[in-house]
Design a protein that fits this description.
Length: about 130
């Protein structure tokens, strides 16, 4: 039986493809600019290099924060499920709890991945637009 592909999986695949395309554009434009100036980059090129490094740090911080919140949300959901199973065992048989926990984990993985990739994708797309416009 083939696995059903949901909207979360499709959204993640589209974001990864979009990030890949934008990243290639940005790398090519920046290398062309840096290579054109040679060993002595002008102020504009130095500013672009500095901006590039600051953007990467900011995107990484945003990404890790989004992933951490996704993990915290999963922890709360699992704790809630565990408490419900403990207080109402007749409504939550162990097999159902295990299946629900696995589904929660899978959804949290996809949501965390989507949230974690978004800061990088957002910056790469804006840089691609900015650098190809010049």
């Amino acid at each position: 039986m083939a696995a059903k592909i949901g909207r979360r999986e499709v959204r993640l695949a589209v974001k990864v493809a979009d990030l890949s395309l934008a990243t290639h554009t940005v790398i090519a434009a920046r290398l062309a600019r840096i290579g054109k100036r040679g060993a002595k980059p002008n102020r504009r090129t130095q500013a672009e290099i500095k901006k590039m490094s600051h953007e990467k740090v900011a995107a990484a911080a945003e990404s890790w924060t989004a992933i951490a919140f996704s993990g915290a949300r999963l922890g709360q959901q699992l704790m809630s499920l565990g408490m419900a199973a403990m207080w109402q065992p007749h409504r939550y048989p162990p097999a159902d709890v295990a299946i629900r926990a696995a589904k929660l984990g899978y959804v949290a993985l996809l949501d965390g991945s989507n949230a974690g990739i978004e800061p990088f994708r957002k910056r790469a797309r804006s840089n691609a637009r900015r650098l190809t416009k010049e």
